[in-house]
């Protein structure tokens, strides 16, 4: 396997409903496609930032515990409406050594993974390390975080996981209005197709100035991992998208890869 740098991914993961409620079939199918692509890359480990893990103050937190358990980030109502979701687990490896290496570098959710790498079928046999985003809404800080993480040695795959539109009002009201999701997703696709990575990033950074941004992200924790991904892929113009035009209760599930797949024998034979 080549030592060429691995690409980076932003995964639109949704909530736990994606695992069992009807209507998510096409979204699940694309997440499985992403999972198969990642498995074919044969990374040594995965380092992931997620919209459900923010640091405190001006700090990034790294989970050094080994092994690491699954935390259920769900409100009290789930205990009465869908209590079975608290039984969900995801068997995985963790790595204190990788966490310490990542933490030292910085100092100088499992929902998508259950679909991307299903247990008993195609699970990952590599360490998965989750690090936090920063608190607050500084998009540039997360681009710089991605730039720092991209210097991790070896075949480490860096993933940001969240949502490009996390319209909580639409979720609470169960609305079928997709105006905000469509508008921002269209802008994201336009940014991805920009002629240069620097212009792409400038367009994404300008999203905070949009009038509909507060509807898309009442709080911005779910979109911060996207900007980490932009930092990792700061020199790559190549991209691929999944789950385009798939809107459920006003949310966008758009996912994308930045960077080319390594030129391996499998890929030359059409297997990657």
From TrEMBL:
SUPFAM superfamilies, alphabetically? LigB-like
Q: Which organism is it from?
A: Aspergillus niger
Domain Extradiol ring-cleavage dioxygenase class III enzyme subunit B: from-to ranges: 110-235
Alphabetized, the UniProt keywords read: Metal-binding, Oxidoreductase, Zinc
Pfam families annotated for this entry? LigB
GO MF term (any one): metal ion binding
| Entry protein name | Extradiol ring-cleavage dioxygenase class III enzyme subunit B domain-containing protein
Q: Which family does it belong to?
A: Belongs to the DODA-type extradiol aromatic ring-opening dioxygenase family.
Q: Which InterPro entries does the record associate with it?
A: Extradiol_dOase_DODA (IPR014436), Xdiol_dOase_suB (IPR004183)
Q: Which cofactor does it need?
A: Zn(2+)
